[in-house]
């Protein structure tokens, strides 16, 4: 049935269901001569692309194929996506519908942005497309989805940072990405993505088999957003690099992500820079690292894990056999926390990079770390830049003694 009165058996309009809804139709005015319309195939679809199979009493009893390019938007409401539907009339004049499952046909956007379209056209042969801080809206995302993503076999990386993307805009993008098997990287820095938008993106990830890198630096997904992405990580086997830095996730959000890490077998890099993480969040992550066998890089820069959090992380380093790089700069870690890390380094044979820059380390902590390196020949760099409480004399002595120590 249709909410549009013109769509009836006595009109020249055909009724089609809106995708994702039930009992809601749109009108398409049949303004070509019936003799010009080819019949539908026995499978009730059309051999020619961008045609839809319909039945209308004015065009005999057999369904015909109508070209989408001939829809009259001035008479009938436009629609971005349609599926094939066949309408048959019985002897009792009762109209029944039979929907055939086919690939959705997408029409060009009605909304126009000549500047954006020119940018896309100019860069159509590049594998990377960057459209930064252009004040693009959800309507513009439909243009990006249609012209830059759909059926594009060249584009592998898309950066739309600094634009205003809501749920509708993101839906255009994610729907198009399902049809694109080449796009592997999506960057959305500073895009005002809140938990509602994050939910749609996380849900879409569970059905995307191509995307391997997602960068959401500096948005507002919060605790709920972290929960949505944690669920995606438990159900997505492709994503390898995830950047959720500066997203006010907090310890509660970290708990969800840590639970996902226990079972995720693909993610190799996780960036959680500036997310209000304390020793509680560090404990959640450390516990997850005992089970995770895939993560290589963990960034916790500019949080507040402190000495207690450093102790939890040190314990995970002892048992984890895959982590290669740990970034815990600016985390209020003092000499006590450093001692735990130094002890763990003596027995760790996998970590190649540890960054402790900007913490509250003194000469005592620096000497403790230097001693640990005597037993560890695997680590390639141990960085303590901006360690204001370490004397220049100790810095010079240790740097000369072991080039892996960087101040």
Automatic annotation (TrEMBL):
Cited SMART domains: LRR_RI
Entry superkingdom: Eukaryota
Entry-linked Pfam families: LRR_6
Matches recorded under PANTHER family: F-BOX DOMAIN-CONTAINING PROTEIN-RELATED, LEUCINE RICH REPEAT FAMILY PROTEIN
Stated name of the protein: Uncharacterized protein
